[in-house]
Amino acid sequence: MDSVQDLLVALARRHAFADLEALTDDPEVAAVCEFGHRLLSLDAEDFAAEARRVPPALRRRARACTMPQTPREQPRGALESLRPAYGLLLEVIAIRWERRELSPMVAALHIASEYLPMLAFESVLGHAGDPVRWPAGLSSPGSRFGVIGDRECDHTKSEQSAANRTLRVAVEPAEGWRAYFDRQHSQVAGALATCVSDCRSPCTAMDWVAPGPREDLALRSRVALAFAETPLVRLRHAAPVGHGFGVPSPEEVLEAWERSRVLLAKNEVGGAAGREDGFPLPGLPSLFSAVAAAPVTVSTLLEDITVHLVGLLRSGGDGASGRTGVL
User: Fold this and answer.
1) Domain that residue 267 falls in
2) Distance between CA atoms of 44 and 41, rounded to whole angstroms?
3) H-helix or E-strand spanning residue 296
4) CA distance 261 to 52
5) Number of domains, the chain
6) How far apart are CA 326 and CA 294, in angstroms?
7) Among 163, 216, 224, 225, which residue carries the largest CB count within 10 Å?
8) What digits encode the pLDDT tens for the residues 208-219?
9) Which top-level group of life is the source organism from (predicted)?
10) pTM of the model
């Protein structure tokens, strides 16, 4: 490295936002670093409104990936569409792979698996599972969706509880709304997928979807449920950091993904995972797109944050880097 500035630029280009934040006393650079780090860590619930030093275009793109924090908040972010969020998840997975940070990579894959059924339902709902806009048909006469204790329903007790809550959470205060998304919304995603694809005693809960689209939705939902049971996603349970187990190696991750691709290739939707699309886990963006029935592309949000940071560092001269007293 020829200078401190070169070091900071190198950290930015590695998406090492936390390290860069620790090494700069420039408030604007630090704010953008915090913004990027929280996105990379998938810890970006309510920060976008606070990140005033971050360009508005980047903030808007980040907000599209996050859940609204109140029932009436506008815009609706990831409840309008999950595709931006899945694009970000793919970008995070690729960055973690490049840096060989495999534990957070596997955690990101687990998050993707939890909400994948909701990505499938977006095509028929017209939104991404917004509890404010659930179709009335979910609660139509004869529906067991959200009926706690109904023994004919294939949902688990926790899924029944989550389904019951989702039908009324829109009128709860903000604290209840956030608690629901922290603990129950992903279970609703799985419950919906079970309703349309795997229920042994169907009720009227899915009658609002026409037969043709319902057959297609059932296939995509079945693949979404299958993805959650693949060897790749199960790596998270095999490597719980802090519980005395090891983190999977890159070879183990690739081997688990290859076995997953074989298991998923039972139909044309799951077979999309077999495509060579240039992603570090080849076929993963293609699989998400097939489940969504719409293009899901790898985001460039974190890369664009890096580009902005490099511009700040380069233009700051002695400002951003020279004032750093730790080197």
Assistant:
1) 66-298
2) 8
3) none
4) 43
5) 2
6) 48
7) 224
8) 999 999 999 999
9) Bacteria
10) 0.93
